[in-house]
Design goal:
Part of an enzyme complex containing four subunits: a flavoprotein, an iron-sulfur protein, plus two membrane-anchoring proteins, SdhC and SdhD. The complex can form homotrimers. 84% of the residues lie in helices and 0% in strands. The chain has four helices and no strands. The longest helix is centred in the first third of the chain and has 32 residues, at 9-40. The protein starts with 8 loop residues before the first helix and ends with a helix.
Length: 113
């Protein structure tokens, strides 16, 4: 049985914000490792940069930009939720933030390919 609070439209916005934060947290150690390679082993870094031309990596970058955008807009939604009075327009704002995150990440992806 689905819990009543999970039927609310903003529950999806909450879930996306939490999952995007988790995805970004999982990405950060790999990112810091590659940055350390740039400082300590530039030849290995060049190998990884060449690997970035793989189409699968470009799709993963699209996902990463989407996670970043959805987490940004989810955080803005939370700040508005805590600071402003409740209104039905918040559902619309949450939906618009998902659309904006998809648009930003798709533009990034189209420029990358």
């Amino acid at each position: 049985m689905i819990k009543p609070h999970r039927k609310h439209p903003l529950w999806l916005a909450y879930l996306l914000h939490r999952l995007s934060g988790l995805g970004l947290a999982l990405f950060l150690p790999a990112h810091f490792y590659l940055l350390s390679l740039a400082l300590n082993q530039p030849d290995r870094m060049d190998k990884y940069l060449g690997w970035g031309e793989n189409p699968l990596v470009k799709v993963a970058e699209y996902g990463l930009v989407f996670l970043l955008a959805i987490h940004l807009f989810g955080g803005l939604r939370l700040m508005a939720f805590e600071s402003l009075e409740w209104s039905n327009n918040q559902k619309t704002a949450a939906a618009c933030s998902i659309v904006a995150a998809l648009a930003i990440s798709t533009i990034f992806f189209l420029r990358a390919i």
